[in-house]
Design a protein that fits this description.
single chain; alpha+beta; Arc Repressor Mutant, subunit A; three-stranded antiparallel sheet; elongated; EC 6.3.5.-; ATP-binding; protein biosynthesis
């Protein structure tokens, strides 16, 4: 498995151009990332730091003296005709990642290397039905992405997975994405290409130590697609071999529509790339003290954090899975950290706030409300300043940009009415307006008090303390 991670740095790997996603084509370029004559690269220190953090989190050895190389090949979206990468001296080597499979077993995936490099530009093929070059009338080139920092993480051959290889592949990329996100080195948006997976698959006769010819399925961009692509490629190669054919070493493209792969180009070997040391960049020799400081600053592993949170909140595996699938886990945890009870924080994020996100076609994280603000609203309900109905109006106000929860309460006049005098007056008016109901209550039909309480709540625009109103109604009719 080869996973390319776009690092979340503000600028590119070797120049000061910004890296923001979605900018107008070719507006984030300069002579360095366009490979113009005489332009000299300078290494991005933050990218090196991120690469070291990734290596440490994967239990790798950090290379004390590494260097960049030129990987020579021509593609229209590679403006220099070579890619500045690392070849024989990567930043991190010999690590591993333990991943959890569906049946609860753990599979260790050995990591061969993690190396730094730069991304290519992007080709947009116009006029075809598939968005690929075949059938297109012309192509457009956007070099904004050229030079964006990448770390490529390459596993060793994953032996012995057999029929479970697709599951192992998905579990590995899932765990790796979680780890990278927890490190804060990338937004790991597979839909935007921040995390891209290449799956190398080969079959071998049972019991044979010799690997068969491999294919490389490029740029698979979802966790589900990783599993589907590996499974399809296993079956495709098996069909070729069983029919007496030979598997061709090539790159292949995953087809999202039907879950198949299509042939790309014949796969080059390392010799074809004519690697040689990059003459314009000094070797990378991180200070050991810096490396150890970064090691000490590594965050809690995401699966260990989830286990701790689950035990602390007392939620089931299914509830925990639902929180993760909804993208609510970190938001709920931050709300709890801000002082809210876990059950109430979960309730708000997975119920009303999820409804608001869906209606706006946003993710929960994109909602214009912070965990601290949700915690404050929960606190206002707890101390009796708001009831749940009013609290939802406060959420609406925060989402509408009306300020902090307390500002919305004051601006909209939403505080619960709990003054005995004001409530008694509202109760007296409701009883006078509904004499038949009042008589039923006096006759012992205490459930009828609900109608009077409802009338008072309507009169106070839902701002009365319902429990206090009920108490006053029953007292007045006793």
């Amino acid at each position: 498995m080869e996973v390319h991670v776009e690092l979340g740095t503000a600028t590119k790997m070797f120049c000061g151009c910004p890296t923001g996603f979605g900018a107008e084509p070719n507006t984030q370029t300069c002579p360095v990332c366009l490979g113009l004559p005489g332009a000299l690269p300078v290494v991005n220190e933050k990218a090196v730091e991120s690469a070291i953090r990734i290596g440490l989190a994967l239990h790798c050895t950090i290379t004390p003296h590494g260097r960049f190389a030129r990987k020579n090949y021509f593609y229209p979206d590679q403006p220099k005709n070579f890619q500045t990468s690392q070849y024989d001296e990567p930043i991190a080597t010999d690590g591993y990642l333990d991943v959890l499979l569906d049946d609860g077993t753990t599979w260790r995936v050995d990591v061969e290397r993690a190396h730094m490099e730069e991304d290519t530009g992007k080709s947009l093929h116009v006029g075809g039905a598939t968005g690929r070059i075949h059938g297109a009338s012309h192509s457009l080139l956007d070099y904004n992405r050229a030079g964006v920092p990448l770390v490529e993480i390459v596993t060793r051959t994953i032996h012995g997975a057999g029929a479970r290889a697709p599951e192992v592949a998905r579990a590995y990329v899932t765990a790796l994405r979680d780890l990278l996100e927890s490190l804060g080195v990338s937004d790991v948006r597979m839909d935007q290409g921040s995390l891209r997976c290449d799956a190398n698959v080969s079959l071998t006769p049972s019991g044979s130590p010799v690997l068969g010819t491999r294919t490389e399925t490029k740029n698979v961009n979802s966790l589900r697609s990783v599993e589907v692509a590996v499974r399809h490629e296993m079956r495709r190669q098996a069909a070729v071999l069983l029919a007496g054919g030979e598997v061709v070493q090539e790159t292949r493209h995953f087809q999202e529509v039907d879950g198949t792969t299509a042939a790309g180009r014949k796969k080059e070997t390392a010799e074809d790339y004519r690697y040689f040391p990059e003459p314009d960049l000094s070797p990378v020799a991180p200070d050991p003290a810096w490396v150890e400081r970064l090691r000490a600053e590594l965050p809690e592993l995401p699966w260990e954090r989830r286990a701790r949170i689950q035990a602390s909140w007392g939620v089931s595996d299914e509830e925990m899975r639902d929180l993760r699938n909804a993208g609510a886990l970190d938001l709920v945890a931050a709300t709890v950290d801000a002082g809210a009870p876990a059950d109430q924080a979960r309730s708000w994020w997975v119920a009303y706030l999820t409804q608001q996100a869906n209606s706006r076609e946003l993710t929960l994280a994109q909602l214009a409300i912070s965990p601290a603000q949700v915690a404050r609203i929960i606190a206002l309900v707890a101390d009796g300043s708001l009831n749940n109905k009013l609290a939802r109006q406060v959420v609406d106000g925060v989402l509408a940009g009306e300020g902090e929860p307390d500002d919305v309460v004051a601006g909209r006049g939403l505080a619960v009415v709990s003054d005995d005098g004001a409530l008694q007056h509202a109760v007296d008016e409701a009883l006078a307006a509904n004499p038949a109901v009042a008589e039923k209550i006096r006759g012992g039909a205490t459930k009828a008090a609900g109608a009077i309480v409802g009338a008072v709540m309507k009169a106070t625009r839902g701002q009365a303390d319902a429990a206090k109103v009920t108490e006053l109604v029953l007292k007045a009719c006793s």
